[in-house]
Amino acid sequence: MRKLIEEKLLLNVQKPGRYIGGEYNSVQKELREDMLRFAFAFPDIYEVGMSHVGLKILYHLLNEQENIWCERVFAPWIDADAVMKKENIPLFSLESYTPIKEFDVIGFTLQYEMCYTNVLNMLALGGIALRGKDRAESDPIIIAGGPCALSPEPMADFIDMFVIGEGEEVILELTALLLQYKKGELTKQELFFRASQLQGVYVPSLYEVSYHANGTIERFAPKIADVPIKVKKRIIRDMDKVYYPTNPIVPYIQIVHDRITQEIFRGCIRGCRFCQAGFVYRPVRDKSKETVIAQIEQSLASTGYDEVSLVSLSSMDYDPCADVVEHMIAQHEDDKISVALPSLRMDGFSVDIARKIQKVRKTGLTFAPEAGSERMRSVINKGICEEDIVKTANEVFASGWGRMKLYFMMGLPYEEDEDILQILDVAAKVLDCYYATAKEQRNKNIAIALSVACFVPKPHTPFQWQAQDSIAEFQRKQRLLKSQKTNRKITISTHEPYLSALEAVFALGDRRLGRVLEETVKNGCIFDGWDEVFDYEKWVDAFEKAGIDAAFYANRQKTYEEILPWDFIDTGVDKDFLIQENEKAKEAEATPNCRRQCSGCGIEDDESYRGFCL
Amino acid sequence: MMLRAMFKKEGKMRFLSHLDMVRVMERAMRRAKIGVKYSEGFHPIPKITFSPPVPLGAVSYGELMEADINCSGAEFLERMNRVLPEGCRILKVYELKEGAKKMSKCEMKADYEIVFENVACEEVVIAIERFNARGIELDEAKEDSAGDKENSIRDRVFYLDTYENKDGKAVFRCVLDATQSNILSPKALLEYFREKCDLMADEQYTVYKNELIIE
Q: What are phi and psi of A317, to 5 degrees?
C-alpha cells in the first residue's frame, strides 16, 4: 500500500503534502488485536479539515485512550481522486496508510450540507457500501457528528449512528460499546439498541417514518420498544474540566487556519434568529481565563506556532477577552506571537482590541451587520443599530484601517426590496465616516467590500418554518443591489444562489433525500461546496431521477403544526420559544441577549441541562 | 552567532515543497526555544536563509540553512533534532566567524544519484560515452555561440558514473556545480543528456542529493 501510494499517487498530484501524514504531533501506535481502529473522516480537503477544531479535539481525545487508535482521512482533491480511481488505490488513512474498509469505525464530521456528496464518495472510494442496510458485520460502522447531525435525516440511509451535540463524553461511551461489538460480545442490532440508549446518539435504522399525501410527515417513531422517541443533544457542563488538546498536529503544508485554535467558550448569548449555532449550543459556557491562558502556553510550546486564534461563536462576548489579549502582548512581545480574533462585533470594544492585536499590520477588519435596514436587523435580532455601525466605522478609520469588509444576507424573512437597498446606505454611511476622519489620521486607501450571502433557513431556529427565496428571486435581488451601486470605493460580492438553494434542501430535508444523494454520486458530484467543481445540472438531473421536488423542502412555508424532519431532536430549546421568536420577528421586535435578560428559551427547565446556564 | 547547518530531507519529507520545509524549520526552532534574529519592518519574519530548492520528490542529505541564533552550534543540533519531524535531521553545523562568506557566495558541489525506473544501466553507459566524445568534438570545433552555451552546461559537470543499485535499477551518479549563482540541476543535466547524448529517459526517476561539498 505504502509503495503504491508513493509511486502512483504522490508524485502525480498537485499537492502530495495533503496525503503523506507523519506531521509533528500526529499519533502512531503499535497495533494490537484488542484495539479499536477509528478513522476520523473529514469530507473535505486536508487544508480545510485540519483547520477544524472538532477534529483536533476528538483525534487527540480518542488517542489518549490506550485501546483506541484514531487516524485521519480526508477527501482527496479531484486530481488525487482521479488517480486513485485509475490506479485502484482505496481511500486510506494518513497515519498508517490503511484502507478505510479495514477500520472498525469511521466517524464523519458533517460541517455543511454540501459535503454530503463527499461523504458518499469517500465511502465509495473506500470500497464500502453506501447504504447501512447493505453493509455486512465485517464492514466498518459508520458514524457522524457535527452541526449537520442536528438535522440528520437526508443522511439517514448512509450513517449507522449520529452523535448529536458535543462529542467529548458521548464518543467515549460509544467507543466502549464499539469495543464490545468488535470483541463479538454484541451483535450489530444489539450495538445499535445499546447505543440508542445513550443520550446524544441517534440510530436512524431504529425509527420509521410515514408521510401524508401532501408530502409532509405523518408519523416519526421508533420501531421497537425502549428506543427513545426524542433524542437529546449532549453538551459539556464544565468547560474547565473538559478535555482540550494542547499538542495539536502541526501540518507541513499551509492549511486554511494555520495557527493554534484556542476555544474560549461555547454557546452564544445573542440569539440572532437566523443562526443555528446560537440556538443549538445553548447555554453559554465559558472557559476560565486561567484555563485559556494555560492551554495557549502549552500549545505554543508543543507546536512552535506563532499565532493563536481565540475562537467561539462571538469572541467579543467573552468577558476576559481583553485580559487574555493583554497577557499575550505582555508575555510574547519578543517571540512575535500574534493573536487573531475571527469574530468581531460592531462595537467600540472590538476596535479597541483589534487595535491592540494588530499593532503593525493594518490590513483590514471584517464585521457582520447581516442586514441593511434597522428594521431587518430587529427582525433577525442582530442587536446592533446604525449608531453602533457609525461609531465603529469612525473608530476603525481613526485607528488607521482603510479596508473594511461587511457581511450581509439577502432573502431574509419579511424582507422588502427597500431593505436590500439599504445595504448600500450602510456602505455609504461607513464611507462618510472615512471622509469625516482627519486626513493625517486615516489610511490613504479606502475600500468597502460588501459580501452578500443568500439566506438559508436552518432547523432549530425561529426561521425553520420559513420558505427560502427561489433562485430567480435571489438573482433578481442581486441584480437590484448591484444596479444601484454607484461608488467605486464600494465592491459587492454575492453567493451562488444555486448552492444556497441546495443547502436549504439538505438542511431542511427528510430521509427521502437519500435517493437524490445516491443519484448525485452516480452523476459524479464531488466537492459541491467548491464553486469551481459544483455542477448544478448534475443535481437537477439527480432530483429528476429520484422523483423529488427540491422546492417542497426549500421554498415551502411550513406550518407550526406539521412534524418537521428534525423535530425528534431535542436541543433543550422549546419549540414554543422558537414560535414566539418567529412571531416577534414578524413585528420586528428584538429579544435582549441572555446576559441582559433571560428570555426563557427552555434550556433551564430541562432537567438534562439544568444548572448549565450561568 | 551566525550558524550554518546541513540537514537531510528523506522519507515523507521528500514530498514537501521548499516553502513547507522553511515552515518546518521555523516551527522546530520555536519548539526548541532557539532565539533567532528577525527582519525589521512591518511584518517581522525570522531571518533564516535556505539553500535553493531541490525538486519535489527528491531525497536530500545536503540542504543548508543559515541563521543568526542565540546558542552554540552543538546545542542547536541537539535541541533541533529532539523536535524535528521524522525524515528531517540536522546533520552538521558550522559556526561562522564574523565576516565569513555567506552561503550564497560559497563555491559548492553536489553529489547526486538519479535512480531510473525505466532506463537500463547500459543505456546510461553509452550516453556517458557520447557525452565524453562530444567534449572532444567541442574542443576541436571552432567555438561558436551555440558551443559556448553547451560548454556552460558541461563546465558545471564534475563527475559522471553509472551502476546498478541493489534493486537492479540504473543509477546515474553525477557531481554538479551547486554554487548558488551557477547551479546545474539534475533535471537540466538530464535535459542535456536527452538532447545531445540520445539518452531516452522519461520522468520516472528519483533524485538523491547525497552530499553537498562546500569549498
A: -85, 5
Which of B17, B20, B43 is opposite residue A361, by nearest beta carbon? B43
Residues of A in contact with B40 (CB under 8 A): none
Beta bridge partners of A367: A406
Instruction: List alpha helices for B84-161, DSSP H.
Output: 121-140, 145-154
What rounded mean pLDDT belongs to chain A?
A: 95
CA of A303, closest CA in chain B: separation in Å?
6
Per-residue pLDDT at B38 exceeds 60: yes
* Beta carbons of B128 and B196 less than 8 angstroms apart: no
Consecutive H or E run containing B24: helix B18-31
Q: Which residue of B has its CA nearest to A26?
A: B85
Query: Which tens digit of pLDDT belongs to each residue from A534-576?
Result: 999 999 999 999 999 999 999 999 999 999 999 999 999 999 9
The beta-strand segments (E) located in A323-429 are 338-340, 365-370, 403-410
Strands A365-370 and B157-164: unpaired
- Is the pLDDT at A139 greater than 60? The verdict is yes
Distance, in angstroms, between A362 CA and closest chain B CA?
9
Distance from the Cα of B164 to chain A's closest Cα (Å) equals 20
Whether chain B has a CB inside 8 Å of the CB on A400: the answer is no
Average pLDDT of the segment spanning A127-133: 98
Q: What is the pLDDT of residue A364?
A: 76
Which CATH number, 3.40.50.300, 3.30.750.210, 3.40.50.1000, 3.40.50.1010, labels domain A238-343+572-614? 3.30.750.210
**Cβ–Cβ below 8 Å for A304 and B42:** no
Question: Which pLDDT belongs to residue A307?
Answer: 92
Distance from CA of A433 to the nearest CA of B (A): 26
Confidence band, pLDDT 50/70/90 cuts, at residue B136: confident
Q: Is A23 on the interface with B (CB under 8 A)?
A: yes
Three-state DSSP at A117 gives: helix
Closest Cβ–Cβ partner in B23, B43, B57 for A360? B43
Amino acid in position A578: L
Q: Is A3 on the interface with B (CB under 8 A)?
A: no
Three-state DSSP class for residue A545 = helix
Compute the average pLDDT of residues B172-198.
Answer: 95
**Whole-angstrom distance between the N-terminal and C-terminal Cα of chain B?**
21
Residue B20 has its nearest CB partner, among A10, A253, A302, at: A253
Measured between CA atoms, the residue of chain A closest to residue B24 is A252
Which pLDDT score is estimated for A348?
63
**Comparing B145 with A508, which gets the higher pLDDT?**
A508
Please name the member of B20, B35, B57 whose beta carbon is closest to the beta carbon of A252: B20
Which candidate, A107, A122, A4, places its Cα nearest to that of A58?
A107
H/E run at residue A232 = strand A231-232
Question: Which of A28, A249, A252, A255 is most worth mutating to test chain B (most B CB atoms within 10 A of its CB)?
Answer: A252
Q: Which residues contact B191 (CB under 8 A, 6 or more apart)?
A: none
> What confidence tens digit (pLDDT) does each residue in A293-342 have?
999 999 999 999 999 999 999 988 999 999 999 999 899 888 888 888 87
What is the average pLDDT across A446-474? 97
By Cβ distance, the residue of B24, B28, B30 closest to A306 is B30
- Asked whether this complex has an ipTM greater than 0.95, the answer is no
Give A498→chain B minimum CA distance, Å.
Answer: 36
Torsional class of A604: left (φ above 0), alpha (ψ -120 to 50), beta (otherwise): alpha
Domains of chain B: 2-105 (3.30.70.580), 108-214 (3.30.70)
A304 near B CB under 8 A:
yes
Domain ranges for chain A: 2-165+167-232, 238-343+572-614
